[in-house]
């Protein structure tokens, strides 16, 4: 009993040592996710190469991955809030000119290696910090859509012109979609618990500069309990659905459907891609296979963007944070941008 009490006091008595150990443990857990997920599937009476085996491995890997990212990012953001007030963060990322904050957030999204579901934790962290809604959406769109792995693979497979056009179009969608959502003033369509959390932090930041490191760590833990405690069921359900799609959707069907270079192929590709879920690196082999079967490049890129930027599992997780009207607006704006990209690529290449 005494040992448990000492363990509980450890973060406040040795805060810097606790932070160092926490980083090491988090990193080791993250690195062990792939072998652990493979070991779990191997322990089950399921063939690893079967549809069910692929879906289970995906679920065992992605669920703890997203939860670890959520816990780590929310904890760090909770500590950052004890140094930087929400008002200061909001002013910094709002920018003095229209679109500056959106451009900064979209640029940050390009260099962060997140899929659509993995980007949600940082999106929530930005909302916590009081970052304007439109700016947070620029990050949420750019992070999965303009992935550095996708850029490298596109450069290697199709050359620098395709990679550069993909980068520019992806950034433009993220920046202008964020600006448009910001202009619509839809802050009232954040879920009530998110808005309440923002107001509470704004009022409770007075005197933060005199906090000890132990108190800052406790503040970080408080954020983790509050946010992860509310969001985790949605993550499990969302990733579970993504795992089923990942394992059971037939690729041959997609290839035959998207191989037709007709005017409706682009919107059909977007509709087909939205329910799916994978990261940019995972969808590149599918892109290569579809192009080898004669599909138009713009149609295939529209499919790729919808898979990685508008996945159904992401929407399920976002539903805990956003009300349906704001989610519908987000889908409509981004889908419109993706359609434009598809048609422009088909027109110029």
Automatic annotation (TrEMBL):
Q: Which residue ranges run through the membrane? A: 67-84, 105-127, 133-155, 162-181, 231-250, 262-284, 290-312, 324-345
Q: Does Secreted count among this protein's keywords?
A: no
Q: Does the keyword Cell wall biogenesis/degradation apply?
A: no
- Membrane-topology descriptor: Multi-pass membrane protein
Q: What are the UniProt keywords, alphabetically?
A: Cell membrane, Membrane, Transmembrane, Transmembrane helix
Give the subcellular location.
Answer: Cell membrane
Protein name in UniProt? Permease
Q: Where does this protein come from, organism-wise?
A: Thiothrix winogradskyi
